[in-house]
């Protein structure tokens, strides 16, 4: 357990160098997350005989990846970054991977911003390719959670989004203090648990798009719970009531949105089924 407590002292976040540029485990985990989501979607489509062909699914994921990356970065700038005004005045700096002449990569991504970018990209793809929006959403609801596990492992390996100070024996020393490995808690809660909920419920789905609403509510609940072990963003701290973090606020809004959209999705789904 002693080795685990001091794991960061023995771990190199850089996996290897490519043409002189460092390739971090963090980036590799995000690549694995995207691949897991894509191939998870293809497996689900084949297994449950969802009426979407492979080429369409490949094209859709390209659109989604672009939407997620743009949304995640812009969301971080708007929701979390203390230099929001600077980036709004210098938008070309948002995706600049260099800082003071040194390559540092693009850092600072927001999950909730990624969700917004994902929905915009999905809506545009659905309209252009004349595919039922709810059908795409149900595929994503099944595919994304397991990919999300790799994303949180990436956060852990990159020593970011650290946990709160604790005295549990499995804690990790970060900045001289023993902390919860909250990224791994999130990998389980927001990835494995949410996937299990979606997978078990999918056969009981009553209308297209219901699974994405269930995902939104389940993820919001798991993220809200996980934030009690995760340290609040240092530039924001607790934003409400002396205990609520920005992640909990956004997760609460996500759950509320899922509940409010449920009757609308249900009505549209039933109307289409009646035709």
Automatic annotation (TrEMBL):
Keywords: Cell membrane, Membrane, Transferase, Transmembrane, Transmembrane helix
GO MF annotation terms: phosphatidylglycerol-prolipoprotein diacylglyceryl transferase activity
EC number: 2.5.1.145
Pathway: Protein modification; lipoprotein biosynthesis (diacylglyceryl transfer)
Keyword set includes Cell inner membrane: no
Domain of life: Bacteria
Transmembrane segments: 23-45, 57-79, 109-126, 133-151, 183-200, 212-229, 249-269
Major site of localization recorded for this protein: membrane
Family: Belongs to the Lgt family.
Function: Catalyzes the transfer of the diacylglyceryl group from phosphatidylglycerol to the sulfhydryl group of the N-terminal cysteine of a prolipoprotein, the first step in the formation of mature lipoproteins.
Protein name (database record): Phosphatidylglycerol--prolipoprotein diacylglyceryl transferase
Source organism (scientific name): Sulfurimonas diazotrophicus
Organism phylogeny: Bacteria, Pseudomonadati, Campylobacterota, Epsilonproteobacteria, Campylobacterales
Gene transcribed to yield this protein: lgt
